[in-house]
Amino acid sequence: MTKLEEMIQRAGTIAVLGHVNPDGDCIGSCLAVYNYIKDQYPQKQTAVYLEAADQKFSYLRGFEEIRGQWEGEAADLCVCVDCSDRERLGPFVSCLDQAAESVCVDHHVTNEGYAGENIIEPAASSTCEVLFYQFEEERISKAAAECLYTGIIHDTGVFKYSNTTSRTMEAAGRLMAKGIPFSDIIDDSFYRKTYLQSQILGRALLESISFLDKRCIFSVVRRKDMDFYGVDKNDLGGIVEQLRIIEGVECAIFLYETAPHTYKVSMRSNRIVDVSRIAAYFGGGGHIRAAGCTMSGSIHDVINNLSLHIEKQLRESEHV
Ligand code: 5GP
Ligand code: MN
Question: Is the pLDDT reported for residue 320 higher than 80?
Answer without folding.
Answer: no
